């Protein structure tokens, strides 16, 4: 039995190490975390094999003979065995806990020149605010090799901020700010994933994170600042501004709108929103503009047939300025089939 168990342990460890469990490593924490997982796997396999070997051995060795209905021999325990099977796991678990703590402490250490990014989760989109840089965006762009501190908040329910390639993740909890620190170490595009079931659109709550060079980051910052400065409260290219708002605000996470390349079915499709606004607006005694505005500011006041109450966030009235809402209303009515009406 010892020989079979040893062979099974070796094979089990080999298989667990050969399997490629993790995606690419794109942060400096990835190496340490992957190694920690490997150590956990290596420690788990012998325990699993030991428990299964004893269980299987007992099933066969102590099997009742046909017709034997007598009780088993009374057993009063074995102090030495019990001390051993309590002490060894205690030492193993404590050692792994200390090891895990050391790794976490190292990853979470404050580093100089840290970039702070405020992450806001909302059903069903992420938004990012770079307070020192005065940039707000829904596309996370990070410079390679610069430490980042994410300060994560939620406006509604539990979400979970996760970039698998960075390895770290953290819940976004209403009412508190959670933090994670990491340093991107590999150029490329990855997914920001929501890892907590947060409602009907949970599976669509995915956005891009782009790790770029220092120069690329500076160029992106300049461009974002430029477009923010050029964004019209009045005048300017309002169709472009409307489209930008539509994606930046996360409308595209739930609504289909051909002009904005969005393709989601959590809320009503907006390709024909002008016709809908005329029809339902008339029914509600509103102009199409008033109808669309009410649908953004107070979404539960009127529900398009087949859509449920409480799905659309009610926070846009506070999050968007009146000018932004007007820009969005105009944009939607223009691209939603109402052009020239
Ligand atoms: Cu947000 Cu799942």
Polypeptide structure, described:
- The radius of gyration is 28 Å and the shape is elongated.
- It contains nine helices and ten strands.
- Strands 3-2-1-5-8 form a five-stranded mixed beta sheet.
- A hairpin with a 4-residue loop joins strand 2 (125-130) and strand 3.
- It is α+β, with helices and mostly antiparallel strands.
- The model has no long low-confidence stretch (mean pLDDT 87).
- It has helices spanning 2-18, 29-61, 79-108, 214-230, 238-248, 273-284, 288-297, 316-319, 322-338; strands at residues 115-122, 125-130, 135-137, 140-143, 148-154, 159-162, 169-172, 178-182, 188-194, 206-212.
- The structure holds dinuclear copper ion (CUA).
- Residues 121, 124, 159, 194, 196-198, 202, 205 line the site of dinuclear copper ion.
- Dinuclear copper ion (CUA) binds next to loops.
Entry keywords:
341 residues; alpha+beta; 9 helices; 10 strands; 16% strand; binds dinuclear copper ion
Name every ligand kind in the structure: dinuclear copper ion
**Low-confidence residue ranges:** none
Number of strands: 10
Category by helix and strand content: alpha+beta
Distance between the termini: 83 Å
The residue-averaged pLDDT reads 87
Backbone shape = elongated
What radius of gyration results from the CA coordinates?
Answer: 28 Å
Q: Beta-strand percentage? A: 15-25%
Strand adjacency order, main sheet? 3-2-1-5-8
- Helices, by number, come to 9
Largest sheet: 5 strands, mixed
H/E element order = HHHEEEEEEEEEEHHHHHH
- Helix content percent band: 40-55%
């Amino acid at each position: 039995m010892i020989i079979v168990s040893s062979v099974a342990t070796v094979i089990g460890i080999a298989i667990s190490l050969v399997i490629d469990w993790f995606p690419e490593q794109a942060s400096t924490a990835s190496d340490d975390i992957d190694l920690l997982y490997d150590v956990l796997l290596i420690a788990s396999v012998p325990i699993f094999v030991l428990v299964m070997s004893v269980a299987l051995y007992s099933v066969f060795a102590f099997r009742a003979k046909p017709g034997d209905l007598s009780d088993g021999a009374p057993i009063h325990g074995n102090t030495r065995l019990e001390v051993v099977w309590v002490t060894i796991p205690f030492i193993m678990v404590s050692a792994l806990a200390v090891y895990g703590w050391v790794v976490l402490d190292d990853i979470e250490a404050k580093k100089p020149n840290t970039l702070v990014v405020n992450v806001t989760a909302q059903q069903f989109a992420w938004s990012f605010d770079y307070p020192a840089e005065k940039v707000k965006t829904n596309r996370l762009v990070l410079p390679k090799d610069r430490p980042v501190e994410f300060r994560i908040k939620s406006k509604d329910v539990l979400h979970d901020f996760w970039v698998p390639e960075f390895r770290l993740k953290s819940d976004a909890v209403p009412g508190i700010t959670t933090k994670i620190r990491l340093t991107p170490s590999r150029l490329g595009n990855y997914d920001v994933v929501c890892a907590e079931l947060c409602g009907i659109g949970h599976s669509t709550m995915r956005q891009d994170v782009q790790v770029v060079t220092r120069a690329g980051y500076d160029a992106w910052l300049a461009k974002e600042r430029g477009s923010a400065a050029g964004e019209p409260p009045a005048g300017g290219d309002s169709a472009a501004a409307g489209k930008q708002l539509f994606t930046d605000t996360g409308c595209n996470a739930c609504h289909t709108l051909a002009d904005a390349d969005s393709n989601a079915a959590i809320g009503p499709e907006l390709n024909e929103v002008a016709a809908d606004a005329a029809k339902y607006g008339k029914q509600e005694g509103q102009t199409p503009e008033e109808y669309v505005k009410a649908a953004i500011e107070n979404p539960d006041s009127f529900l398009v047939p087949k859509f449920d109450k409480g799905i659309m966030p009610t926070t846009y009235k506070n999050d968007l300025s009146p000018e932004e809402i007007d820009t969005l209303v105009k944009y939607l009515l223009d691209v939603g089939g109402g052009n020239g009406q």
